[in-house]
C-alpha cells in the first residue's frame, strides 16, 4: 500500500510539472535574432470604400527596406485610382508617403523594429479597389544574413588554413550573382503587377462598352415604339352612327 501511494504522489507531481505552460521556447535566442533575415512578400488585398489597412514588417538598423504597390482594379461609383500609402518607423516618424495608382517607397532603415505600412482608400467613398503589394528587406553586402556568423567563422578557418584565394573569389562572385538575381526578381514582380493592372483595365472597359451598348439599344427600341404609338394616335378615327355623328 505504501509503494502504491508513493507511486501515485510521484505521478501527480510529474503530471503537474508537465502540464505547466512553456513561456519561452528558445531562451537562448533573443527577439532580434529570431527576426533576423532577408525576406520578401507579395500578395493582393481588396480595400473597401474609404477603407484603411495596415501591415507591419520587422527590419534591423542599416537594412534596405522597399515597398512596391499597384492598383489593379477599381469598382463602384465615381471611382478614383489614387491610393494613399504611408510608411512609419518604429518610433512613429513618417519615412515615406505616396498618393498615386502605383509607386515605390525604398530607404535604408535608421531604427530596429517593426515598420508600419498603411494603405488608405479615402479617395473612393463609394468604390472598392484591389491592390497588389510587394515589400521586404534585403542586404547589399550579403545574400543570406541568417548565416552571417557562420560565414565569419568559415572565413577565420580559411585564414588559419591559408586556403587558396580562388575560394574567396568564387564566394564574392556567387554573392554578386545572388544579389543580381534578387533585383531581377523584383523587376519581374513589378512587371507582373503592371500586366495584371492592364488586364483588369481591359476587362473593365469591355464591361463598360457592353453595358452602354445594351442601354443605347434599349433606348433606340423604346424611342421607335413611342413614335409609332403617337403616329397611330394622330390617325385614330371613331365609328359613326345615326345618333353619333362627327362634328366640325
From TrEMBL:
Tell me which UniProt keywords the record has, alphabetically. Answer: Coiled coil, Endoplasmic reticulum, Membrane, Signal, Transmembrane, Transmembrane helix
Q: What are its GO cellular component terms? A: endoplasmic reticulum membrane
Determine the domain of life of the protein's source.
Eukaryota
- Where the record annotates domain GOLD, the positions are 52-137
Write down the Pfam families for this protein, in alphabetical order.
Answer: EMP24_GP25L (PF01105)
Q: Principal place where this protein is found?
A: endoplasmic reticulum
The listed locations are:
Endoplasmic reticulum membrane; Membrane
State the membrane topology: Single-pass type I membrane protein
What are the transmembrane regions?
Answer: 212-231
> Where is the secretion signal located?
1-21
Which chain positions lie within coiled-coil regions? 142-169
Q: Which PANTHER family match?
A: TRANSMEMBRANE EMP24 DOMAIN-CONTAINING PROTEIN (PTHR22811)
The entry sums up its family as follows: Belongs to the EMP24/GP25L family.
Protein name, entry field: Zinc finger DHHC-type palmitoyltransferase 7
Organism for this UniProt entry:
Astyanax mexicanus
Q: What is the lineage of its organism?
A: Eukaryota, Metazoa, Chordata, Craniata, Vertebrata
Amino acid at each position: 500500500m505504501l509503494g502504491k501511494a508513493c507511486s501515485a504522489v510521484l505521478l501527480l507531481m510529474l503530471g503537474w510539472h508537465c502540464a505547466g505552460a512553456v513561456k519561452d521556447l528558445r531562451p537562448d535566442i533573443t527577439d532580434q535574432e529570431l527576426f533576423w533575415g532577408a525576406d520578401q512578400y507579395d500578395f493582393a488585398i481588396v480595400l473597401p470604400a474609404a477603407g484603411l489597412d495596415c501591415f507591419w514588417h520587422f527590419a534591423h538598423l542599416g537594412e534596405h527596406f522597399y515597398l512596391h504597390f499597384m492598383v489593379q482594379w477599381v469598382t463602384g461609383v465615381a471611382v478614383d485610382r489614387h491610393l494613399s500609402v504611408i510608411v512609419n518607423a518604429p518610433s512613429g516618424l513618417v519615412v515615406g508617403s505616396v498618393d498615386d495608382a502605383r509607386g515605390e517607397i525604398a530607404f535604408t532603415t535608421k531604427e530596429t523594429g517593426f515598420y508600419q505600412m498603411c494603405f488608405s482608400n479615402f479617395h473612393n467613398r463609394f468604390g472598392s479597389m484591389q491592390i497588389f503589394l510587394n515589400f521586404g528587406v534585403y542586404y547589399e553586402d550579403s545574400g543570406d544574413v541568417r548565416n552571417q556568423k557562420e560565414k565569419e567563422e568559415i572565413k577565420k578557418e580559411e585564414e588559419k588554413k591559408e586556403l587558396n584565394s580562388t575560394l574567396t573569389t568564387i564566394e564574392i562572385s556567387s554573392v554578386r550573382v545572388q544579389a543580381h538575381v534578387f533585383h531581377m526578381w523584383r523587376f519581374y514582380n513589378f512587371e507582373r503587377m503592371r500586366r495584371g493592372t492592364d488586364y483588369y483595365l481591359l476587362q473593365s472597359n469591355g464591361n463598360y462598352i457592353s453595358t452602354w451598348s445594351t442601354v443605347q439599344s434599349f433606348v433606340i427600341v423604346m424611342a421607335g415604339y413611342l413614335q409609332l404609338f403617337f403616329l397611330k394616335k394622330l390617325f385614330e378615327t371613331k365609328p359613326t352612327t345615326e345618333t353619333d355623328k362627327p362634328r366640325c
